[in-house]
Amino acid sequence: MSQKNVQFSLAAHIVAVLGYHHGSSVTTAVLADSVRADATFVRRSVAKLARAGVITTTRGQHGACRLARPPTEVTLLEVYRASEAPPPFALHEYAEEPLCSVSANFKPSMCELLLDTTSRFESGLAELTVADLVGRIRVIETTYGANSINASRRALGTNNVPQTL
């Protein structure tokens, strides 16, 4: 059985909001409204992003967040690593059957493939910035209209858009 892990997606959503409103401070309440998640859950992600130096925060009654650097200088790899999400790929656990060549050799073979794939995934994220993500959001917003739940469905060509938290 697989489980969804949304840590990276949540962190990317947070920095996208901050990038969209670059130059302004955004409260965790506003972030929680955008993500449609409990503010406590959002604050945990905000804390990770702040520890990693991706965002800055101010505390108190008027506390808020902002990107630590311009959106063009924050890579999605930084956001991914800051989110502390588990690796994107994992092997299933099993007791090897020594008389079966596949069973006995699957783990080391698959590990090599997954290490290579993970490396390419991270290289791709290193090439993308928060500005790139915000740019895509703005294109969809311009093309399909702001604040439309159907915009993402039309942009993806599907009615099966993953649900938020």
From TrEMBL:
State the coiled-coil residue ranges: none
Identify the domain of life.
Answer: Bacteria
Pfam families hit by this protein = Rrf2
UniProt GO cellular component terms: cytosol
- InterPro entries noted in UniProt: Tscrpt_reg_Rrf2 (IPR000944), WH-like_DNA-bd_sf (IPR036388), WH_DNA-bd_sf (IPR036390)
Q: Enumerate the GO terms in the molecular function aspect.
A: DNA-binding transcription factor activity
Q: Which PANTHER family match?
A: HTH-TYPE TRANSCRIPTIONAL REGULATOR YWGB-RELATED, WINGED HELIX-TURN-HELIX TRANSCRIPTIONAL REGULATOR, RRF2 FAMILY
| Name of the protein | Rrf2 family transcriptional regulator
